Amino acid sequence: MKKKALILIVLILAGLFVYYHIHSRQEKKDTGILTIYGNVDIREVNLSFRVPGLVKEMNLEEGNNTKKGQIIAYLDRNQYIDQLNESNAQVNAQKAQLDKLLAGTRNEEIAQAKALVQEREAALSNAEDIFNRNSKSYKSGIVSQQEYINSVKQKDEAQARLSYSREALIQALNGPRIQDIQAARASLKASQARSSSLQKTISYTTLSAPSNGTVLTRIKEPGTYVNAGESIYTLALNSPKWIQAYVDEIDLGKIHSGMKTQITSDSFPNKIYSGYIGFISPTAEFTPKSVETPELRSSLVYRLRIIVKDPQNQLRQGMPVTVGIKIGPNKDAKAAGKNR
Fold first, then answer.
1. If you compute the radius of gyration of the chain from its CA atoms, what whole number of angstroms results?
2. Which CATH class is domain 45-77+207-236?
3. Burial 229-261, CB ≥16 within 10 A → b, else e
4. In whole angstroms, how far apart are CA 125 and each of 71, 141, 165, 190?
5. Which residues pair with 302 in a beta bridge?
């Protein structure tokens, strides 16, 4: 008797479960709302300087809100300013040298070169006269051998100086070589590029917020030396804000990207947030343990990313939410029914 009663109770419970399951699906079909569950997913970004240096100022504390473009930290830029000043001075010097080459030789310099040639021609003529006299006197035994040798050296030196001055005059008349001008231009461009790079480096000593957000972590403090890329803040971005949810295979065909949604949370039960489906995963995965639904879960689900509007910044990372998606009748199911 007890065994029959137990079997009867089991049958009644099974019938109630089937009724509830069918009734809930019928109710979902009648209302046209697909309800799924998920969690708020907020992007985080680690902020850092692009150049190394000593942290001079940090303007925000944990929990402070930021606006896009807001300056939130500075590095000490004095060392980079000194390098820029030195580079700019080098640019000015090389520019002056290039201008000098492009202007060519001045008339005054050409006149000086001609005068020097004339002076050294006279010096060579004088040295040759002395050499000729000493040469005859040396043969006659009037002058010593050393005096004769000295006159030879003086004549050779005068000849060398004259040759050098004549070449200098030719260069002055021809002006600077094309190769010298090209080399001066290349040096100037290299110095200008270095100055431009240093100007960018100085701009990198200022750190700005990339988007509206909230400071999660203040990692460094003023006075700390940081390397390029070393994080000093962790920022939670306010927009876009996502809901990560999952839909079972049965309901996958009822939704598509761009569908509008309504989101509610237990923290703000009277508040409805609008959103839309931004992404549907092309691959199935096993249901995460964090997903809780009032219905029996399928073994495989598809991940959704829902973009939600939260202008008052009320939703927080990991907060569980309920997502309602307004769906129409399943056209594929209707078509299949007609073909039967």
1. 45
2. mainly beta
3. eeebbbbbbbbebbbbbbbbeebbebbeeebeb
4. 78, 24, 15, 49
5. 247, 284
Residue 275 bridge partners (DSSP): 261, 308
Of 83 and 29, which is predicted with more confidence? 83
Q: Is 213 helix (H, G, I), strand (E, B) or coil?
A: strand
Q: CB 272: neighbour CB atoms within 10 A?
A: 11
* Of 128 and 140, the one with more pLDDT: 128
pLDDT of residue 180: 82
> What is the C-alpha separation between 138 and 126, in angstroms, rounded?
18
Predicted structure pTM score: 0.58
> 123 pLDDT exceeds 60?
yes
**CATH classification number, 29-42+240-339, choose in 3.40.50.10490, 2.40.30.170, 3.40.50.720, 3.90.930.60:** 2.40.30.170
3-class secondary structure, 46:
strand
Residues 269 and 324: their CA atoms lie apart, in Å, by 14
Phi then psi for residue 182, to 5 deg, are: -65, -40
Structure tokens at 276: 């839309």
What whole-number distance in Å separates Cα of residue 122 and Cα of residue 232?
78
Domain ranges of the chain: 29-42+240-339, 45-77+207-236, 81-200
* Sequence-ordered strand ranges (E) for the chain: 33-41, 44-48, 53-58, 65-66, 71-75, 206-208, 213-218, 225-226, 231-237, 241-248, 260-265, 273-286, 300-308, 320-326
